[in-house]
């Protein structure tokens, strides 16, 4: 029986609250805190059991520390934005509370994706006897656990890893992002980067692509090479990996809009002067794009996110594909959110459950692949994200 304090009342926060509320035997007390408390109250009103809400600016460490000391939760689940990660970790250290997030820290003024800032907290959390679990969403998150699971049960060594994120859903809007538009566009417009023979190789944004034939009736889609943060931790923790890449599907329509927005300067993250007011174009763009939450009732189709791993088992070369299929409309029927928020929020709840049940509780700062994957994989099957593993022949491998 534990108390959890969830920070962030956006698309992902809504799913985490719904899923924790369904599991009263683990999460018997829930507090939802965010910058705009009315959004917390709107989520609370969707639930069949009462939860507490609070207003907090998570960038104000003193204010957040006071809230944590007053509420005394067992764990903080951070599903605000990546900019808040370090402030929330500081407040957790001040108040002596375990920590979990779903995205690595990003400095607001630079789209830089790396774990260095959060890994630097290792000693502080260890000394305080507190657990910090980083990246407990789907990618990062489940993809890290999938890799650890294949390594534990299917392959003695992994040599090549391709993480493939396919959203075959359609929301019918001319242009919209499935999660926070600012975070999404910063990520997508960054240079591609992949791991090869012990070093990072860079590619211009979204220039490397190929077709991949997805299961469950989704069929062939174009996938684009991008950098994604789990590549950094997975290649660190499985140093035998010779090549690791991350791919994502984009529709031609999404790419056409993105190209125009970039060309006209609307994706810039540096301030520009507009009639004497400083405006960051990407933040302004966010304010005119559809709220990802509004896409929930509109989105139809499936997501398929998984890992293709090639390696050696008992001296033989083997290739396995492990993936989940999630249906946007089924997610909406269950928790009033589309599958992108759902596939992030469910693993955040399961990561929280792992810590609260002492299965993944260890002082320090950890990535998902550093713990035993088995209890997490069991819970994915039980709480809404069932997975399967198939063996591929060499023709199933991406080039
Ligand atoms: P949203 O923009 O929908 O929600 C973010 C929430 O955080 C909002 O409620 C916002 O408040 C709140 N917030 C922002 N700043 C502060 C602050 N200073 N103090 C308190 N609350 C604040 O984002 P999403 O729900 O789409 O994404 C949440 C997180 O999940 C992000 O970090 C994202 O990167 C991550 N993510 C991870 C994925 C994965 O697979 N690992 C996939 C998708 C997302 P307000 O309402 O006032 O703006």
Automatic annotation (TrEMBL):
InterPro entries hit by this protein: NAD(P)-bd_dom_sf, Sacchrp_dh-like_C, Sacchrp_dh_NADP-bd
Q: Which residue numbers delimit the Saccharopine dehydrogenase NADP binding domain? A: 4-133
Q: Which residues form the Saccharopine dehydrogenase-like C-terminal domain?
A: 137-385
- Supply the SUPFAM superfamilies for this chain: NAD(P)-binding Rossmann-fold domains (SSF51735)
Q: Which domain of life does the protein's organism represent? A: Bacteria
Alphabetized PANTHER family for the sequence:
CARBOXYNORSPERMIDINE SYNTHASE (PTHR43796)
Query: What protein name is recorded for this chain?
Result: Saccharopine dehydrogenase family protein
This protein's species is: Saccharophagus degradans
